[in-house]
Design goal:
Nucleotidyltransferase, domain 5; Hypothetical protein af1432; 3 domains; 5-stranded mixed β-sheet; 49% helix
Length: 509
């Protein structure tokens, strides 16, 4: 038997990580390893799915588009070679944000892929794109990063690794191709409709971005990379796009008159259908944001995901900064947030193992919910839990997927008064649903124990779980007689929980 070559130390210790991007045009799988503190790409797979084409006027995803996606994800699963879940991250973008039946599709998609799939907000997508570009080619200049996708276009301005502006606009090469080039004709009318629609979208960020300013513009992903290749083929500078190039390309397309006649050096066959719409969007971006030229980067969303998977950019730190910013923005009482958080974690420690909550994610989401439970207090006291839920569901929070925001919002919605058990039916996974209900029960007690809003010694009580999943609080003799307000609060809590079938028993030794 031939002697096998020895693996070097780096290969032995560097695990393979994977990023999966369920985009509106294509699905991508990128495999990488961290070598000498640098990301080494070791494999890529890409399939044209045109998911955005499957959205009808009611924003329902067609069965055909779903099947294309599921077939692709099954192929990706084979390539992942049973990688541990913590080494794989899969995200859905614009189309899965828009599809009304995304929840049902995601159940099938996760079965096909074998890994959880997050749906991320547009600004979270922009943040990850910026992370990928910034880590791939660190610049000393303030930069604008642009990514034209199938359903949306992301923008980010930042310096070094820190983005300062993040936005996602609903204009993409697949959706605009369907809307403005559905007849496949290359004429002035179709181009002007697409360019004008793009300019109208861009008005929402134009003043803010021009006021912020930047020195370098970087474009990334398929549409921009394809246009760079075409511009080079028709005699313009390699790796750079100018407005002259875009307008020249537009004239060439107008002369071709129909999609079937499009033949250009550097244009892949599978991009012919979406090139005119992508070009119209890019022309509008140049004109509205007064851009002179765009350089390109091979890094984008997937690279941003990979850098975070390696730990180079700590996702925990990103989330913590986002939560602190949210608390400051809504003028939350930080002392009360600290008290409730401390109490919640003490309660969690006592039941975590028995209730199968002894994992970092359960601890973290309980801690975030404890600190955020009064987000809605500034709006209205009596309905603060509903306002807090609304804020968490409708605010872009860096580092959080839409599912994670939904779970955090659900905990805040549940922290007081009637327990909204039916709201947890939106959680499809039974284990996740049970976990969140249990965390909500702990959060409610943590808030209740801190009703006096001042630092105090923890109640002299033991907490345990019986065989029927009943939460049992046992206080020392005479404690509740000495703390009558707490006793009254506990009686009311017992009523709310027992009515929801979540039994609470209060004992005195």
């Amino acid at each position: 038997m031939a002697e096998q070559p020895e693996k070097n130390i780096d290969e032995q210790v560097a695990p393979t990580i994977a990023a999966i991007d369920l985009g509106s045009n294509s699905f991508h799988l990128t495999l990488a390893r961290l070598q000498h503190n640098n990301l080494q790409i070791i494999g890529r797979l890409k399939e044209k799915i045109r998911l955005a084409e499957g959205l009808d006027e009611q924003h329902m995803l067609s069965e055909q588009a779903q099947q294309r996606a599921l077939d692709c994800l099954k192929q990706f699963r084979h390539r992942l070679h049973g990688l541990p879940q913590q080494q794989v991250r899969a995200v859905g973008t614009y189309t899965l944000r828009k599809a009304k039946n995304a929840r049902q599709f995601l159940q099938l998609a996760q079965q096909a892929l074998g890994y959880p799939i997050e749906v991320i907000s547009g600004t979270e997508e922009a943040r990850l794109i910026y992370e990928g570009v910034a880590h791939f080619q660190l610049s000393k200049h303030k930069q604008l990063v642009i990514d034209i996708g199938g359903g949306s276009t992301e923008f980010a301005i930042g310096e070094a690794f820190e983005p300062v502006l993040l936005d996602s606009l609903q204009m993409g090469c697949v959706s605009y191709s369907q809307k403005y080039f559905s007849d496949k004709h290359l004429n002035d009318e179709n181009f002007e409709r697409a360019i004008t629609a793009s300019q109208l979208e861009l008005l929402s960020i134009q003043d803010l971005y021009l006021r912020e300013g930047w020195s370098l513009t970087i474009g990334t992903s398929g549409t921009i990379e394809s246009i760079v290749e075409i511009c080079h083929g028709i005699g313009f500078k390699s790796n750079t796009i100018t407005l002259d190039c875009l307008l020249t390309l537009k004239q060439q397309l107008l002369a071709m008159k129909h999609f079937d006649a499009i033949v250009l050096d550097g244009l892949a066959e599978n991009r012919r259908e979406i090139l005119p719409a992508g070009l119209a969007i890019l022309i509008a971006i140049f004109q509205t944001l007064k851009i002179s030229s765009i350089e390109t980067s091979p890094a984008a969303l997937r690279e941003g995901m990979l850098y975070e998977l390696t730990g180079i950019e700590k996702i925990f730190d990103i989330k913590e900064r986002a939560i602190k910013g949210l608390l400051n923005k809504h003028h939350v009482d930080m002392d009360q947030a600290r008290r409730v958080n401390q109490t919640a974690l003490v309660l969690w420690q006592k039941v975590a193992r028995h209730w199968q909550l002894d994992d970092d994610q359960s601890r973290l989401i309980l801690s975030w919910a404890a600190r955020c439970h009064e987000l809605g207090l500034n709006i209205n006291f009596s309905k603060q839990q509903k306002h807090g839920e609304y804020i968490l569901k409708n605010t872009d929070i860096n580092g959080f997927s839409l599912q994670q925001q939904q779970q955090l919002a659900l905990l805040v919605r549940s922290f007081r008064r009637k327990f909204p058990l039916h709201r947890f039916d939106t959680i499809d996974n039974k284990q996740d649903k049970q976990r969140l209900i249990r965390l909500a029960r702990l959060l409610r007690l943590a808030v209740l124990f801190n009703h006096r809003r001042r630092d105090f010694d923890s109640p002299d009580a033991d907490i345990s779980i019986d065989d029927q999943d009943t939460l049992v609080l046992t206080f020392s003799k005479g404690y509740l007689e000495q703390h009558k307000l707490l006793a009254a609060d506990l009686q009311q809590e017992q009523y709310f929980l027992n009515k929801a079938g979540l039994n609470l028993v209060i004992n005195s030794e």
